[in-house]
Every structure is written in C-alpha cells, then in structure tokens.
Amino acid sequence: MIMKKEDLQALLNDMSLEEKIMQLVQLPGQTFEETAAVTGLADMEKAKKMKSLAGSVLGLHGADKIKAIQKEYMENHPHHIPLMFMLDVIHGHDTVFPCPLAQGATFDPEVARVGAQVQAKEAAADGVQVTFSPMADLVRDARWGRVVESTGEDPYLNGLMTAAMVKGYQGDSIADKEHVAACVKHFAAYGAAEAGRDYNTCEISEHTLRDQYLQGYRLPISEGARLVMTSFNTLNGIPSSGNKWLMRDVLRDEMGFDGVLISDWAAIAEMVNWGFAQDLKEAAALAMDAGVDIDMCTESYSGSLEALIKEGRVSEALLDKAVMRVLELKNDLGLFEDPYHGASEERYKEITLSKDSREKARDAVRKSLVLLENKEGTLPLSSKKIALIGPYVDDKDTHSAWAITCNKENNITLRQAFEEEFAGSDVEVKYSNGSLMVDNDSDLGFLKFHSDTFREDNDRLMKEALEIADECDTIIMCLGESLMQSGESTSRAKITLPQVQLELFGKVKEKGKKLITLIFTGRPLDLGDIPEVSDALLICWRPGTESGHGIVDVLTGKTSPQGKLPMSFPWTVGQEPLYYNRFNTGRPKPFEGASIFTSRYLDCPNEARYPFGFGLTYSEFEISEVKLDKTSITRGSSASDKAIASVEIKNTGAYAATQTVQLYIRDMAGSVVRPIKELKGFKKVSLGPGENSQVSFEITEEMLKFWTASNRFESEAGKFKVFIGLDSATENEAEFELV
Ligand code: GLC
To answer: Separation of 502 CA from ligand 1 center, angstroms?
Structure first.
C-alpha cells in the first residue's frame, strides 16, 4: 500500500542529515554497473558512500539488472528507502515512434498519448520508473539540433501534444506497472538559446517568456507531470537552476507545480562556469534557494549541503521539504510496496515490440509525413519500374539520437518495406544507396566520420545509382540528415543536406525521370533546388521503428498523407529564427508607398518557404468564407458568451483524405503588439471524394487573453480577425470585436 503522509514524515524525521542530503543526489547509471566508479568521483570511499545512499540513478534499464541493484541497495540502506530509476524515454523504448517534431506534424494529441503509453509500458517492464519526457520547449530556430525533441513553433500545439504525452506516460496512477512518472523539460525557454546554439544564453523579455514560452509547459504541468527539469540556459543573465523567481514564484507559486524539480545534467555545477556561483558550494546554495530538489550527476549537493546547513546558509527545513517531495514521488510510484515497480524480464519480453505496438507506431508514421510537393499527382505511386536511390534506402538509423534504447535492427528500412510491398507483383524495384550518408570528416558529435576510401566508395555508389536510374521511369530519392545531425549538441550553422547527397541528387536529376524525394530530418532544412526539381517531396522526419512501412503505406496510396508542418521551413538559414506567429512591424512588406523601406531582406523573402501548418494531401479541398454567428462578444460576461466561426469544407479531389482545418486569431491592437496570427484551434476532417462538412470553432474571451502591458493574463477590448484555413498563410478571414 502507499504510505500515509504521517508515515513519510516519521521516516524523514528518523533519517540522518547525510541520508536526507543523499536523497537529493542522482548518480549516472554506470556507477552501478559492475565495477564502474562513480563518474567524476576520484575518491572511491566517497563513491561507495554515494552508491549506498544516493536517492536516484539515471540511464539504467533491464528488469533483472535493476531488481538486483535495488535489492542490494535497499538491504544496505539504513532505512531501506528504495532507489528511483530514471531514463530518457523520449519517443520510444523498443518500439520507437516518430520523433516528437514528427508527432507535432500529426496535429493529433491522441497520437502522442498512444505513443507515450506504449513507451511507458515497455520501459516500465524494463525497470524504468521515471522518464525525462516530454520536452515542451517552444522552438523557433532550426539551427538548434534539439528541435527534433520538440513538437514545434506553436505554444498552443505544444501544450496539447505534451499534455497528451504526460497522460500516456502516467495513466491514472504512476504506481501502475505499465506507467511511469513524466518530467516536463527544460524549464524554461531553452528553445530560445541564442543563435540556435545549445547551452547558450537566452535573452527574452518577461512578457515574451510569459506570452509565448511558458504556454507550452503550462498544460503538461497542469496535466499532473510529477517532475520538471531545469534548463541549461540562462534567462536574462540567470541560469535556470539558480533562478529563484522562475522556479519558486513562477513554476511553483503561479503554475502550482508541487512535484520534484530536477536539474539537467550537471546544470547546478555549471553555474560556476556561467560565472553565477563562485564554487560548487555556492552553486548548491543557489540551487536549493531556487528549489531544485535533485542534483543530476554532480557533487554540488553531496559535497556541500551538510556544511551549508551547519553554517545556517541553507535551512534544514528547506532540505526537508525537498527530501519530502522525493519521498512522496517514490511513495506515489508505489516503491515502498513494490520497489521493482512491476519490472519483469518475462513480461518485458512478452510485451515489447508487440504487433499492436508496431501497428500504433506505423499509424503514427503515416500521420506524421508531410507532403510539400506533388506535381501533376505524381503520388500515389503508379509506376511499374521504380528505383530507390539514396543512403536511406538501407540505413537503419531511422530513429532519432534520443531513442537511446532503440535497437535499430528492428527498424524497417525503405528497401525492406518495398520488397514486402511489391513481392510477386509486376512492379520492378531497383535499389542503390547512391552515396554515403555524410561528407568525409563530418563532425557528428560523438564521432568525426572519416573514411580513407571515401571518394572511391562514393564514386562506386554514384555509378551504381546512375545505372539503375537509366533502367526505370520513376526515381525515389531517399535522402536526409544523419541520425547524429540532430539532437543534443548538434547545432548547425548550415541546415542543408550533406554535400555528398546534394551531388547525388544533382546527377540523378539530369536523368530527367519522374523524381520523388523523401527527406529524413530532425529539423526544418534549407532544401535548395530539391522542391523545384522534385515532382513530389515528402518530409519523413525521424520516423522510428515502422519507418519503411508507414512511408510505403502513404507512397502507395493506402492512405493519403495528412501531416502539417509544426515548424516553418525556410528558404535559407539566414532567415532563422523563423516562425509564423511573428509581429507585423511598423513597416510590413509590402508597405504602401515605401516599397524599399520595409522590413525585408534584399536577397530572400520574409515568408517561410513552407509555412507552419502546411501540408498537402492526395486530394483537393475547398474552404468557404468564414461565417460568424455574431460579430462581437462581451468581455467579462458569463463564460457562455461566445461566437461561432464556421466554414464549409469540401473534398473536390479524387481521393479520400484527412485535412486539418486550422483556426487562427489576430488581435489588431493591444497594450503590447500582438502576433499577426496565433493558432487557437484545429480540427481534423476525413472526407471522401465529393464529400463536404461544416467545421465550427467557438471563439471565447478566454482565447483572446494574453500577457498585457500590465503583466496580467487578460483580454482587452478591440477588433480581432479570425482566420480559418489549411495552413498559417491562410487569408480566409472575418472580423469581430471584443466589447
Ligand atoms: C541531457 C539533456 C536532458 C536529459 C538529461 C538526462 O543533457 O539535456 O534533456 O534528460 O541530460 O539524460
């Protein structure tokens, strides 16, 4: 049974100061793996002490291993308090779903919830009790490699998708053996890292922080996520792990978060590098002041808290509050009753990578793919002589770098899926990798790719590719970033495909055949001439285990693509950061009467090449004008006062397809300037050829609230525009007033 609060309090009162401090220490998994020393700790005695008293560990999985560690740990612990096991299960444990950015492209929170549920079930059976997911950072800069882990550039979409993930991970009770505790990260505004560079500073006004960046965290936290993780960045000069205002006033008091606040890896100690703390001891004090409960993988807390308490710099009452939050989390996970949280090697083997889980992942792939071009109905495939060319024909790294427990051998490649699909048919398919994945001497983070035989290997692949290109009438280019080119610490100043792939594309296009291009990527890319040259262009993201199957389902027309861009695709990296919900400026382009003196580039459009919310289907849709049942709603009236905005949507094409109808609102004038559009709703509509449907949205005062110049979240009377369309560039509008 779950311990009562008074039992926990009695336990806390009975613990020594050292025991209490060590509950706030998280060690890396290798500390517990065989003879590995505690990372970074030279003193083995200290290491042994930490191993025997640390409150949690990250990075381990494996039911039998974890059970053995837990058994030994609890036998040795003075109060037999269970250890807590945490791991980054971001978009898959064994059955890997499309990366979170791809899940954002589904515009379907249910996809995120189902994915998180499958991930939790597999991870929990494998011994994991807490996942460091969902990442709810608002992202606007494609140079930042971690956009792959986000659900995109819109706060409203991010909130819905990440709240659904929390629901999937945690279920109705985190004590349930098929669920884990979720951790919302990285608090806060990590996505605003300057120049798209990881671990960098963020300089944003409190207004922007509140109005744009905090929205995405708010919903998953109110959904009941049990942990929040601090971010690496400074916010206006203050590192998050030492930001008392952000963590106590905003996160805990305003947002009502009463769970465990864990630092990101070494983030407490790194306040010394930032020049915010003189030394680890001061860093520990600042983090405790800010309310950081767990120190991830440094000696800040273990090395200094005892002295800080004895000196009276940190009160023992403050320590006790932090320890109680950790004990409550362990208690709510049911660890005092079942320290193994139901982990079972047998059950894990039985449930993992099940047919049902794979089918759910395959469905998520289908819904995440974004069709950017489809000239003259090139897709769905109709050719009998097809060539697949490119490194993603056979490359099994179709997951993301954050699918850290993924066994890529389970990933279905394009070749495998095509061979299955067309076996025994009259469709002839030829295959060639055509080029290596990346250029020689590419920096791929953990490794620098180099091959002494790079040029000859690449020339051989190219020759082979050009030969099969001659023998077919339709070529499918299977191109993309390397797995290691997005994720943590993979910021890129150039966001094109590797040069070696662009060379391949350039040679193949000269063949003048029908050209379909598939792009595997963890971020928006500068696509160069690929969109102009390709007859069809499909963004596949990092699709995970069921890559090949989901992509072939769409290419063959079993289902129409329905994905919508969760992040704007630029013409060039020089436009970054780039996002649809921007401000109009005083000189919007085109500005009448002053064509050159407007906010613009001399050498590039302002607009995205493909805007947020954009994605084609195999069919055509028409949308009527926006109809409003009333042209004003009254402020402060009962919640019932609302307007209804409606459109008729008709499938005028030849295919059944699912369309995502999007509602945007613009506040024409406010006490602070307001974005030219903000997503406030979306609905998916599935229609057969010739079918139509009415789509309606409620417009309420709540939707019109924002952080005003008075730094309050409220609405202001005035004129508004409502837009309903199929992407953020829609001009299908109507006007109304808030009076
Ligand atoms: C990393 C990441 C964070 C992750 C943590 C534990 O540095 O920033 O997202 O959860 O460390 O692996």
So the answer is: 33
